């Protein structure tokens, strides 16, 4: 039925001039939504490139992770119930402001027995590698907190509190290096 055929031929796109092996091509206009996506992604990639690669404003996932972990660490350490571990105490021993606070505490309370250079005297040397209850940072904290009253070292826990004790221990550790097997 020729009439039906006529109705299906609604406004056909023009045919392009070339033919390849008898194959012809419509000269179709790209749909607007398609063009919009193309141009939008070009603009997006440019803005992305500037923001993340060039300006230094945008942070990579690694940087964001590091920032977030550092924040969590700070919050954790600020909590009163937080107990310092060996790693944290070693880290504190490299922190200049912590060490100088610790030094002030040391000069005020410890220097009379342990000497100006931590070399010992009435108390033991704090720079040698022999320790009464162990040389791990947490052992030293325990020693300073609980003392060794029978041998003439009083418990400093209640007098100084945890913060000052970890600072003074950081100051002592600042004179030491992490033993090779622990690092
Ligand atoms: C009155 C003297 C005296 C004062 C003050 C003193 N200590 Fe001691 N300290 C000692 C004596 C004595 C010992 C040895 C205890 C033992 O043999 O059990 C000692 C041991 C120690 C040890 C263990 C050393 C080791 O080799 O194992 C540490 C750490 C220490 N003192 C830190 C401190 C800190 C920190 C302060 C200041 C807050 C301090 N001491 C104040 C007398 C003192």
How would you explain this protein's 3D organization?
The structure is a single chain. Helix content is 55%, strand content 5%. The chain is mainly alpha-helical and 183 residues long. The protein has two domains: 15-54, no CATH class; 84-176, Cytochrome c-like domain (Cytochrome Bc1 Complex, Chain D, domain 2, Orthogonal Bundle). It has a two-stranded antiparallel ribbon. Helix 4 (86-92) crosses helix 8 and helix 7 packs antiparallel against helix 8. It starts with a helix and ends in a 10-residue tail after the last helix. The model has no long low-confidence stretch (mean pLDDT 89). Heme C (HEC) is lined by residues 109-110, 112-114, 122-124, 126, 130-132, 140, 143-144, 148, 151-153, 156, 168.
Features:
single chain, 183 residues, mainly alpha, Cytochrome Bc1 Complex, Chain D, domain 2, two-stranded antiparallel ribbon, 8 helices, 2 strands, rod-shaped, binds heme C
């Amino acid at each position: 039925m020729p009439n039906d055929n006529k109705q299906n031929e609604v406004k056909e796109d023009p045919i392009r001039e070339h033919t390849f092996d008898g194959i012809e091509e419509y000269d179709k206009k790209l749909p607007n939504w398609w063009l919009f996506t193309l141009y939008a992604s070009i603009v997006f990639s440019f803005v992305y490139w500037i923001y993340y690669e060039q300006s230094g404003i945008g942070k990579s996932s690694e940087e964001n992770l590091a920032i977030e972990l550092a924040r969590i660490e700070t919050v954790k350490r600020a909590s009163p119930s937080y107990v310092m571990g060996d790693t944290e105490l070693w880290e504190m021993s490299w922190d200049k402001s912590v060490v100088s606070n610790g030094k002030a505490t040391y000069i005020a309370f410890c220097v009379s027995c342990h000497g100006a250079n931590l070399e010992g005297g009435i108390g033991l040397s704090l720079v040698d590698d022999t320790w009464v209850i162990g040389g791990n940072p947490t052992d030293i904290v325990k020693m300073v907190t609980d003392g060794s009253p029978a041998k003439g070292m009083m418990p400093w826990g209640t007098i100084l509190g945890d913060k000052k004790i970890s600072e003074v221990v950081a100051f002592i550790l600042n004179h030491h290096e992490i033993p090779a097997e622990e690092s």
